[in-house]
């Protein structure tokens, strides 16, 4: 049974390591996977005024 527990904890650890980029910065991962090119969003101070 010790081998089973070692495999289980090892697999859980490996999956946690793989999940860390999605937990830390999901927008970067989504941007890398997105097929469309997007312009950076503008801040409120640089947005044009509406007329």
UniProtKB/TrEMBL annotation:
<feature type="transmembrane region" description="Helical">
    <location>
        <begin position="12"/>
        <end position="33"/>
    </location>
</feature>
<keyword id="KW-1133">Transmembrane helix</keyword>
<keyword id="KW-0812">Transmembrane</keyword>
<protein>
    <submittedName>
        <fullName>Uncharacterized protein</fullName>
    </submittedName>
</protein>
<keyword id="KW-0472">Membrane</keyword>
